[in-house]
Amino acid sequence: MTKRRLRLRRRGVTTVEFALVLPMLLLIVFGAFEFSRANMLRNSIENAAFEGVRRGIIPGATASEAQTAAQDLLDILRINDSAITISPATIDDNTESVTVTVSAPMTMANHYVMPKFFLGKTLTASITLPCE
Question: Where in the chain are the domains?
C-alpha cells in the first residue's frame, strides 16, 4: 500500500479517539473542580469553628459572640445554610472548655458547579478549646 492509501484508511481515527477520550477528560476536570470546592468548604468551616471557639474562650465572652464570630466568617466566604452549635449554651466563669460545631450542606448554594459526588452530603467541623 502507498502512504496516501494508508492516510485515507486512518482518516477517522482521530475523531473516534477524541470521542472516546473526551468524556473521561471532562469527568476528571469537573471532578477536580468538585473535590477542590469540597476541600475548600471543609477548610472554611474548620476555620469558622476555630474563630468561633477562640471568641468563646475569652473571659467574659458569651455563646452568642462565639456564634456571631463563626457566622461572620461563613458570610464572608459565602457559605449558605450552615448550622452553628455552641456547647455549653451558656458560657460563664466556671466553664472549663468551649466547643463550636459548624455544619454546611453540599448543595448548589455552596458549589460553583453542579455537585455530583458530594450532593446531599454535609460537612461538619468541631473544635474544642479550654477557657482562659
Answer: 3-130
Distance CA 61, CA 102 (A): 19
pLDDT at 6: 63
Longest dimension (CA), the chain: 92
Answer whether 91's CB lies under 8 Å from 63's CB: yes
Residues of the chain with pLDDT under 50: none
Is the four-CA dihedral 26, 31, 36, 37 of positive or negative sign? positive
Could you tell me the pTM of the whole model?
A: 0.78
Distance between CA atoms of residues 78 and 89, nearest Å: 26
Per-residue pLDDT, 118: 80
> Interhelix angle for 13-56 vs 63-76, to 10°?
160
The CATH code of domain 3-130 reads: 3.30.1300
**Amino acid symbol at 127:** I
Find out whether 66 and 90 touch, Cβ atoms under 8 Å. no
Q: Give 29's strand partners.
A: none
**pLDDT for the residue numbered 106:** 86
Whether the Cβ atoms of residue 19 and residue 94 lie closer than 8 Å to each other:
no
C-alpha cell at 33: 473542580
